[in-house]
Amino acid sequence: MDLGFPWWLRVEHFLNIIFITFLVRSGLEILGTYPKLYRSQHTVPGTAWAQFTVQEEAKHKYYTVGGEYSDYSPRISLPGRGLLGLGRYWHFITVTGFVACWITYLVLLLATGQWRRYVPTSWDTFSQAGQDMLAYLAFTMPQPLDGMVFNALQQLSYGFVILVLTPLVILTGAFQSPAIANHFSRITRLLGGRQVIRSIHFLCMVGYVVFFVVHLVLVFLHGYLHETSKMVFGHSDKPILGGIIFSLGLLLVLALHVFATRWTLTKGRAVEKLHNLVVRPWSNLLYKLPSRMHYDRSNITGKDVGLANTTHNFRGSGRPPETPEYLALMANCYEDDYVLEIGGYVERPMTLTLAELRELAAGHSQTTLHHCVQGFTSIGRWRGISMSTLLDLAGPLPGATDVVYTSFQNMGRDDALYEGGTYYESTPMVEARLPQTIIAFELNDEGEIPAKNGAPVRLRLETSTGFRSLKWLERIEVVNRYDIILEGRGGYFEDTDFYDRNQLI
Ligand SMILES: Nc1nc2c(c(=O)[nH]1)N[C@H]1C(S)=C(S)[C@@H](COP(=O)(O)O)O[C@H]1N2
Ligand SMILES: [Mo]
């Protein structure tokens, strides 16, 4: 008997097995780099509501977030071994397919009237579902709803997954993007802020996994061969063939995971290329979403708990430069010795002292949320000068495309966790000109930025993940191409790891 499951629905059902398993595994990789869940956007150590690591937090010293990585096994997360950048690539590649598929599916459900299978039409369905549950617990088969293929419990749970859980996981996923969260700032607040959203996103994943397990158990209870025949042919008339084809399909999914994991661990740059091809066409649209997030002073991390020295609670990543020049600058409180160089492809190369920067900034400050790519967040009030003003002063020459920022810091030399050379970053001109792209020199109205957070001067990019907000800024250079600098990927983490400088997600 044909049960009326059209071919597109069966294809979609199979694709979702691939998408959701890839999303869960790559999602775990992302979770693992900061394996804690918080209610508060301040992510103060010791306040997590859930933790997925056995590492202890160091309490009494400067503890960089880089030290919070947990490396999960490649059998669990994709690709495993704490490779956050590559996990993110897979998450976003898969998201592209998953969301496209879900939208197509919704349109087809509506167009064909198939949606009726998933939406209850009477309140009785809920009490009926309760009875169905009891029936299952007694290992008996509940009856389908009148004129339907599904019983009440199936209708409600499938409907919930398709029409509630999926939009929620997409929404909370989208709001992990600093560009989206800071542009649609009202929705971010309505949803409870970045860390609550991250926690909900995690709970949605738990929801999928629970559904998956129960769904699988029920397939076996109802009869594996009959059920898989429905998934393959839309009817249960060819149970043996259906069972074989579906089982081969599951083996294919398994093979895909094994292949993707091995391929990623050996050929990371190829995965990066795939990501750039699939993800950049839509993620580049995010440059069009300037940050509109303005927090109140009372929201500042540390102020929320009445600390006098609020900057203490603002987490840090990376270690300050250790050169004699930088240490001398620090010992002398930066003030008289620091000069910021601005040069390259400009009409008027220049140097600016801290006093000059302060004067040019004319009191501008912004109170914003820092989104570390690992997942920690802090709210800080940054005083600084907009990059747009600096660019106007220096006058980029025609053909200038990017701005390159260089730090005093050398990662291999200054931070035991990393290898490689000078920390640098770059922004396309559109990003340099965004209203909240600033060169900051003061934090929380408490004077100079602390050494751990980039003293005396740092970059702030408010629509990007935190790693690009370069600290300990020494020089700004306007260029007409960045792909000939070092490895050509536009930044230290881009060159030495698998991060995309165009990734505003
Ligand atoms: N020079 C330099 N800049 C850097 C880093 C670094 O290690 N070196 N870490 C980046 C990362 S990963 C983050 S999350 C932010 C952290 O800023 P914070 O220390 O003020 O919280 O700085 C970014 N800028
Ligand atoms: Mo970070």
TrEMBL record:
It comes from the Bacteria. Keywords: Cell membrane, Membrane, Transmembrane, Transmembrane helix. It is a multi-pass membrane protein. Pfam families: Ni_hydr_CYTB, Oxidored_molyb. InterPro entries: Cyt_b561_bac/Ni-Hgenase (IPR011577), Di-haem_cyt_TM (IPR016174), OxRdtase_Mopterin-bd_dom (IPR000572), OxRdtase_Mopterin-bd_sf (IPR036374). It is found in: Cell membrane. Gene3D superfamilies: Oxidoreductase, molybdopterin-binding domain, Transmembrane di-heme cytochromes, Chain C. The chain crosses the membrane at residues 13-31, 89-111, 156-175, 196-220, 240-260. Its main location: membrane. Coiled coil: none annotated. This is Oxidoreductase. SUPFAM superfamilies: Oxidoreductase molybdopterin-binding domain, Transmembrane di-heme cytochromes. Residues 5-234 form the Cytochrome b561 bacterial/Ni-hydrogenase domain. It comes from Marinospirillum insulare. Residues 335-481 form the Oxidoreductase molybdopterin-binding domain.
